[in-house]
């Protein structure tokens, strides 16, 4: 953990001088914890609760007038949304020059996939299966955020999500705890670096603690109810990975968990986080989630909400004001013990130390314009966006686009659309910074003539019953698109959801395309022109008809600021597609939750046996499995070897295979490693990802890849929730997705 330079601080910022003066510190700076305790000893109850309050500024980054007054009185410890060096410094000045204790304010913001330079949505970025790319994106986001006066982001979201109806699936790393843990750690490292006080780093937040992604019916904010075994095996691991990576803060969630709302749940917030994991960071509530415990039916009133949430382990309250309003009286009445309040305050102050606020409380206004949207940041965004795209269909002819295509019809609602390239949670991303697909194609293919036809409207309101608008208008748009396509050598057909159709409070009951897009696509396919589909979405869509009809299809997610260049890079083959799905794509919405690491059941599905686990009206298999993604080349796996036929339960085996680029162009394959424990005291999933590696190969080149299977890869939580490796047969798979590949086996004795 970063330690503040307190001696330097004595001559550094105003705040530090004031603090050192007030605490009577000598040249020998004592430990941070002693500073914090000394400060707490001087605080009134009101000031203590003030440190536990977070309020939001205006959406555009400006302060609210009220906040100046609260800060002067010591009644506000943190804000969200306030950003920009000038805004931040103005409020900070009030804290440092006009409040009694001169404790700096910590400024937070939802920097989810970029601050000004916007990267692909997190689900898309995870499709790169490249944790270094995620780390780089987070590091750039941190540098920009810091320059804009922020010290804290509410990211990464590390909720496992297995239900595509849930719009927030877009914000996380998908369905798998192993992949999710790797990306959680990478993103925390990216935001925080090794010293979150550095001028280009910020504190991260692991959210939403916990099981928020398992909302019943995929309906945002709905309750979750699950076994402790599932909670610990599936939903905890990415959070634990964030803790192990040194994450500074957690956010408690909105959902009810097994009858106790997660923003007032002593088991998850205190037993697990503090007692088991020994974590000393700060827990901030989600937006009003403390006061919402009244709606949940847990708290009787606001005072009761505070009385339960703070001792349960929510340190800082976002937006609602139950702590500041009722906290002091509750303490005086003996309803909240003083040490509980002090511990929460200690965590809030610790965060401020760790991000360096006592040392450097002000933002440097010159740094902001010099840092935002640097050319190298844009270049990284382009590279990472291209890596995140998944080639879903490839007939070997349509893509990559060849030079000879003189006339390209860019058909569909995303072709020349600056607003829909960044997806949800766009930080301070600006539409004017965005490269459209039209611009990207024109830059990549200077000899081509790109004609744009919107083809269909795109508005989140169209999803609402009766909101699709008039069929005649849709037909006119379609006719215009068909006319443009008829004149072209090649059609690039953009389809998908708008950014507002996924993200928070954007759950869906259907996984179809928005209205009129299927009609548009079918009219275009009927022309029998070479057609490449580019799909934009924040969630898996159930598009069996499109899979059957599209000669080529590239899943672009929401690529961010450099969208147009990145899509063009992949369409033209400048970058060979290398993304793999971090989440299963179903055939039908009725299959969700569908995920590759499901349990076997007593009656595994069999086509010729009715009484097995399946559907009578559809196939049980996914449309595209987890881990799936094509390339412009092909890869072959061969020669699987398992280093030992039998190992002790504390031992490990090495599983290796040869991967060869069997095609004509250079490419990158993500080789995946899955494990199955065949019989165990708690039934195990049919397979679980336990490793992956990215391999870049020239045509004809081959390489050995190696995976280790030891206690970490082979163990599981037994009936007593203890981690153990049990004797018996283990099967392994080395493959290009969660289906197919090479298989082997060994024994644990
Ligand atoms: C979301 C959080 C977010 C917070 C602050 C909430 O509605 O659930 O993910 O960090 O708002 O903007």
Structure overview:
The structure is a single chain. The chain has 749 residues and is α/β, with parallel strands linked by helices. Among the domains are: 381-591, 3-Layer(aba) Sandwich (Rossmann fold); 635-748, Sandwich (Immunoglobulin-like), CATH 2.60.40. Helix content is 31%, strand content 17%. The protein has 24 helices and 26 strands. The strands form 7 sheets. It has a 6-stranded mixed β-sheet, sandwiched between helices. Strands 4-3-2-1-10 form a 5-stranded parallel β-sheet. Strand 2, helix 6 (85-98) and strand 3 form a beta-alpha-beta unit. Beta-D-glucopyranose (BGC) binds at residues 80, 110, 154, 207, 286-287, 504.
Q: What's this entry about, in short?
A:
This protein is of the alpha/beta class.
Described by strand count, sense and barrel closure, the largest sheet is:
6 strands, mixed
Mean pLDDT: 95
Q: What is the number of strand segments?
A: 26
| CATH homology superfamily name of the domain at 381-591 | Glycoside hydrolase family 3 C-terminal domain
- Are any ligands bound, and if so which? beta-D-glucopyranose
Which value, in Å, is the CA radius of gyration?
27 Å
Instruction: Give the CATH topology of the domain at 381-591.
Output: Rossmann fold
Structural class: alpha/beta
Give the overall form. Answer: globular
The residue ranges in which pLDDT falls below 50 over 5 or more consecutive positions are 1-29
Provide the β-strand percentage band: 15-25%
């Amino acid at each position: 953990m970063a330690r503040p330079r307190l001696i330097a601080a004595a001559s550094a910022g105003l705040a530090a001088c004031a603090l050192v003066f007030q605490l009577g510190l000598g040249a020998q700076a004592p430990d941070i914890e002693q500073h914090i305790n000394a400060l707490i000893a001087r605080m009134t109850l009101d000031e203590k609760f003030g440190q536990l309050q977070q309020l939001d500024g205006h959406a555009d980054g400006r302060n609210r007038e009220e906040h100046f007054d609260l800060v002067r009185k010591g009644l506000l410890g943190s804000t969200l949304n306030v950003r920009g060096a000038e805004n931040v410094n103005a409020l900070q000045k009030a804290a440092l020059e006009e409040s009694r204790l001169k404790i700096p304010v910590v400024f937070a913001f939802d920097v989810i996939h970029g601050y000004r330079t916007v990267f692909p949505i997190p689900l898309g970025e995870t499709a790169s299966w490249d944790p270094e790319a995620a780390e780089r994106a987070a590091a750039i986001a941190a540098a920009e955020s810091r320059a804009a006066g922020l010290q804290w982001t509410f990211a990464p979201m590390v909720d496992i999500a297995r239900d595509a109806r849930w719009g927030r699936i877009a914000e996380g790393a998908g369905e798998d705890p192993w992949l999710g843990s790797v990306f959680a750690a990478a993103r925390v490292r990216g935001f925080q670096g090794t010293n979150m006080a550095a001028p280009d780093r910020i504190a991260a937040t692991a959210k939403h603690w916990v099981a928020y992604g398992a909302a019943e019916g995929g309906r945002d904010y709905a309750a979750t109810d699950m076994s402790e075994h599932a909670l610990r095996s599936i939903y905890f691991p990415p959070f634990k990975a964030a803790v192990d990576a040194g994450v500074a803060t957690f956010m408690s969630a909105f959902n009810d968990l097994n009858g106790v709302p997660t923003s007032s749940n002593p088991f998850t917030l205190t037993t697990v986080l503090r007692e088991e994991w020994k974590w000393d960071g700060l827990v901030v509530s989600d937006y009003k989630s403390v006061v919402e415990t009244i709606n949940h039916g847990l708290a009787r009133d606001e005072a009761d909400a505070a009385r339960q949430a703070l001792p349960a382990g929510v340190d800082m309250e976002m937006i609602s004001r139950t702590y500041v309003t009722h906290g002091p009286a509750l303490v005086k009445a003996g309803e909240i013990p003083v040490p509980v309040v002090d511990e929460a305050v200690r965590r809030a102050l610790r965060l401020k130390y760790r991000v360096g606020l006592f040392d450097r409380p002000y933002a440097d206004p010159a740094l902001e314009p010099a840092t935002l949207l640097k050319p190298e940041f844009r270049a990284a965004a382009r590279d990472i966006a291209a890596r995140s795209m998944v080639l879903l269909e490839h007939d070997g002819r349509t893509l990559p686009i060849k030079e000879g295509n003189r006339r390209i019809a860019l058909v569909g609602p995303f072709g020349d659309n600056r607003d829909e390239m960044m997806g949800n949670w766009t930080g301070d991303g600006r539409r004017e910074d965005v490269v459209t697909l039209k611009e990207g194609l024109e830059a990549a293919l200077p000899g081509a003539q790109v004609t744009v036809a919107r083809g269909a409207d795109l508005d989140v309101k169209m999803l609402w019953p009766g909101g699709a608008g008039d069929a005649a208008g849709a037909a006119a748009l379609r006719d215009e698109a068909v006319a443009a396509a008829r004149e072209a050598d090649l059609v690039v057909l953009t389809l998908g959801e708008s950014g507002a159709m996924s993200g928070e409070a954007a759950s869906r009951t259907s996984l179809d395309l928005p209205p009129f897009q299927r009609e548009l696509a079918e009219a275009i396919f009927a022309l029998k022109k070479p057609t490449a589909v580019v799909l934009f979405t924040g969630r898996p869509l159930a598009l069996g008809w499109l899979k059957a009809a599209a000669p080529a299809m590239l899943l672009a997610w929401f690529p961010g600021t450099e969208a147009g260049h990145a899509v063009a890079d992949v369409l033209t083959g400048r970058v060979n597609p290398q993304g793999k799905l971090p989440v299963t794509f179903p055939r039908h919405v009725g299959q969700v939750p569908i995920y590759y690491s499901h349990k076997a059941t007593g009656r595994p599905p069999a086509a010729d046996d009715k009484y097995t686990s399946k559907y009578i009206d559809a196939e049980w298999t996914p449309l595209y499995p987890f881990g799936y993604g094509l390339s412009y080349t092909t890869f072959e796996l061969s020669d699987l070897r398992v280093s030992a036929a039998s190992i002790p339960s504390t031992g490990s085996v090495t599983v290796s295979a040869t991967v060869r680029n069997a095609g004509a162009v250079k490419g990158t394959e993500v080789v995946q490693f899955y494990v199955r424990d065949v019989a165990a005291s708690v039934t195990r999933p049919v397979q679980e990802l336990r490793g992956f590696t990215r391999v870049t190969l020239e045509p004809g080149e081959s390489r050995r890849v190696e995976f280790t299977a030891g206690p970490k890869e082979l163990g599981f939580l037994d009936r007593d929730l203890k981690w153990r490796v049990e004797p018996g047969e283990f099967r392994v798979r080395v493959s290009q997705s969660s289906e197919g590949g090479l298989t082997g086996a060994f024994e644990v004795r």
